[in-house]
């Protein structure tokens, strides 16, 4: 890893901080394995896991088409995707994707956040999934199908019969079956359309081995095992399809073992990682995204107090609790003792400068280098637009160009990945628009206060919430970019065009 790695940086931020660069905080929704329905009801995490499986389940290992590609969002009206949890999941994730973190990546992260929030294992994450913007093939298993059909379906998804048994047990450990979705499996004493759910095991908010232990003990209440209509007992058909060998097996060294808490978790870790990594064969996933103990989250040359140019850097540092550390930042500019900039634009020393234990963070020796041709990305909120939904918003995007820059005025590429609220109405299923891409040429804006050495340009930006902006300018054939600027990340709060420049700098550590 070396900074800047825009895709890695964005995936890492979204995965580990649970917050997308557009200011959405999707991971919080599943905090403490919470439920939407009631305090001890089926958890939101279960809805996210089921949706991820249903999205992946249409993968065809023979021709490599389909997989975890977010096509599920266009497939809700199919009988194989019955489930109130699906639309709720779409709403949870609607405005979190960005140009560098796809809808399908968010679905995969949902499995990781959800499983972890219910006490399950940490799962490795790789990014780079590519979204489909239309429905794909059919193929999500349904309870009434016969065993042979299930075996064929899982084989197409890339799983053997043994793996099918384990994967179903790895899914049906949180959540359950709802009356409103499957009244033929879960009848409700309260009448039709009840949110009442029967859990797969007695610990529906815990990602644990209980699904297996209760099945083997004969005490299970899993509706897909005990429903009176034997045709609908898909879990029973699957779990017992090899004479219960897989469910009973305990072999410490294999990933097929299910019959102990630790071997269950080990098997499920491996299978759930395969689930989220089952993507169309032409999609290349990134390396594993690991947490960065030292991260430059944002670095920019920008403007404060109308006319002062500053270098603004946000860093995130991990260090053991209770230990006091100093961080010293060094930087160079066009003047002063470090004017040659041989060590990069900025770098850091961590630790107690008085002692010898100083760690230098200099981007692996390269220094953190910032160009100063195109600077000061600001996005100023202007107003909400429209009297009725879907509401849009207007912002003004601002960038400064170094005087003497030869060729063109800057341009902004705007990508809006939002799912407007009105498109979520399921009639018969939500119609989610594909991302909006627009390239806007900025115009000279002399009404902004002068900042010596720079000329400023602006352009209006109109859209919904999940907007990312990529600024670019050419100078003598060289291309300069300021990428992945959000209109909505909270960084420019309280900033309007009339008070050009950020007012206060967060500098507390
Ligand atoms: C033959 C294969 C499968 C069948 C027939 C099946 C069927 C079902 C059914 C009927 C429900 C109830 C949904 C509702 O009431 O809204 C359900 C829920 C669920 N399924 Fe499966 N499933 C299968 C495989 C899997 C797999 C492989 C996973 C994940 C690894 C999984 C994860 C879940 C989860 C987490 C829920 C709970 C959802 C909630 O509580 O909101 N399922 N499944």
From TrEMBL:
One of its GO terms (molecular function) is metal ion binding. Keywords: Heme, Iron, Metal-binding, Oxidoreductase, Peroxidase, Signal. The keyword Oxidoreductase applies. GO terms for biological process: cellular response to oxidative stress; hydrogen peroxide catabolic process; response to reactive oxygen species. Gene3D superfamilies: 1.10.520.10. Residues 10-206 form the Plant heme peroxidase family profile domain. Its EC number is 1.11.1.-. InterPro entries: Ccp1-like (IPR044831), Haem_peroxidase (IPR002016), Haem_peroxidase_sf (IPR010255). The keyword Iron applies. Belongs to the peroxidase family. This is Peroxidase. It comes from Hypholoma sublateritium (strain FD-334 SS-4).
